[in-house]
């Protein structure tokens, strides 16, 4: 009789947890972690391309020190961040991650713009290959970020909706941060890039 009572209790407890959204919260959290791992993976892929890209550009445009330094320093900042799943529970750490990646994106854009002033660099097979890899990686980053944003959106709806918000509070589960546009007013304006007069060729 006791054994049956235990089984009935566990079945009741399981159905109660399921009804109050516990399983949905766990599934959502796992989806966010998987999506986040893919985001980090693609950002790391981009960071790994930077040294070869800088080296190739330097071979043709060594005097563009400021831009080359900016890219190197931006990559170093990205590399210095501790990228763990715990970042997802710390909005400030997440903001630092996003800011560092944004700085690297801007620095890479300026670096690639340099190639317009150096026909030999644009014609270099290694540079073209790296540029293609970087473009492909940026596309993968966009896809990974969109998946993460969707996973966070789905999870946050559960965390904030009644009655699952009561379960979330009971288990200390909070809304997760998502990617945002750092400067929404400037999103439609192309960045002004001025490297001065092209070097003599």
Shape, principal axes of CA atoms: elongated
Give the CATH class of one domain.
Mainly Alpha
DSSP strand tally: 0
Distance between the termini: 92 Å
List low-confidence stretches: 9-18, 183-201
CATH evolutionary superfamily of one domain? LemA-like domain
* Mean pLDDT across every amino acid position: 83
Write the layout of secondary structure elements.
Elements: H1 2-19, H2 22-60, H3 65-80, H4 91-114, H5 119-123, H6 125-160, H7 164-170
Helix pairs in contact: 2-3, 2-4, 2-6, 3-4
Overall description:
The chain is mainly α and 201 residues long. It has a domain at 35-145: LemA-like domain (de novo design (two linked rop proteins)), CATH 1.20.1440. It has 7 helices and no strands. Helix 2 runs antiparallel to helix 3 and helix 2 runs parallel beside helix 4. It starts with a helix and ends in a 31-residue tail after the last helix.
Properties at a glance:
7 helices; de novo design (two linked rop proteins); mainly alpha; 201 residues; single chain
Give a quick rundown of the structure.
The chain is mostly helical. It has helices at residues 2-19, 22-60, 65-80, 91-114, 119-123, 125-160, 164-170. Helix 2 packs parallel to helix 4 (91-114) and helix 3 (65-80) runs antiparallel to helix 4.
């Amino acid at each position: 009789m006791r054994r049956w009572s235990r089984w009935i209790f566990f079945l009741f407890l399981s159905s109660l947890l399921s009804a109050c959204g516990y399983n949905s919260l766990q599934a959502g959290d796992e989806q966010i972690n998987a999506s986040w791992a893919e985001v980090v993976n693609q950002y790391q892929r981009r960071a790994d391309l930077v040294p070869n890209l800088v080296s190739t550009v330097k071979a043709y445009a060594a005097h563009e020190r400021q831009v080359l330094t900016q890219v190197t320093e931006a990559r170093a900042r990205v590399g210095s961040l501790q990228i763990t799943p715990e970042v997802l529970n710390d909005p400030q750490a997440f903001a630092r991650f996003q800011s560092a990646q944004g700085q690297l994106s801007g620095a890479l854009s300026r670096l690639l713009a340099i190639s317009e002033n150096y026909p030999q660099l644009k014609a270099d097979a290694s540079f073209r290959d790296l540029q293609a890899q970087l473009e492909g990686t940026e596309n993968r980053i966009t896809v990974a970020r969109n998946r993460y944003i969707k996973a966070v959106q789905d999870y946050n709806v559960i965390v904030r909706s009644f009655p699952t918000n009561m379960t979330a509070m009971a288990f200390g589960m909070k809304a997760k941060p998502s990617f945002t546009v750092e400067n929404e007013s400037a999103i439609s304006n192309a960045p002004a890039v001025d490297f001065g007069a092209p070097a003599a060729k």
